[in-house]
Amino acid sequence: MDCVLKLASQRAVVIFSKSTCCMCHAIKRLFYEQGVSPTVYELDELVNGREMERALVRLGCSGPTLPAVFVGGKLVGSSKNVLTLHIDGSLKKMLKDAGALWL
């Protein structure tokens, strides 16, 4: 779990993903289209990916665990949480506060 938290705190936006997950792809595109360049960790391509996914569950990722999105080192959650924040407009403020957006 420490490894996940350390990685999540090193950049403004961090996404833990799987390369074969369609919702992971959609969430990554959402950030790219906002002008944000997230750091992405594809867990299915990492040696300790399964362990990291279990750590995400222990941190509170529920439902479909992935994608797991961190903004400013804080867990936002999975795609449902991210889309809710995007629709109500609060995601943009979070991104600005984290230094991921400048406008």
TrEMBL record:
Entry GO terms, CC: cytoplasm
Compartment list: Cytoplasm
SUPFAM superfamilies for the chain: Thioredoxin-like
Organism domain of life: Eukaryota
Principal location class: cytoplasm
NCBIfam families: GlrX-like_plant
Protein name: Glutaredoxin domain-containing protein
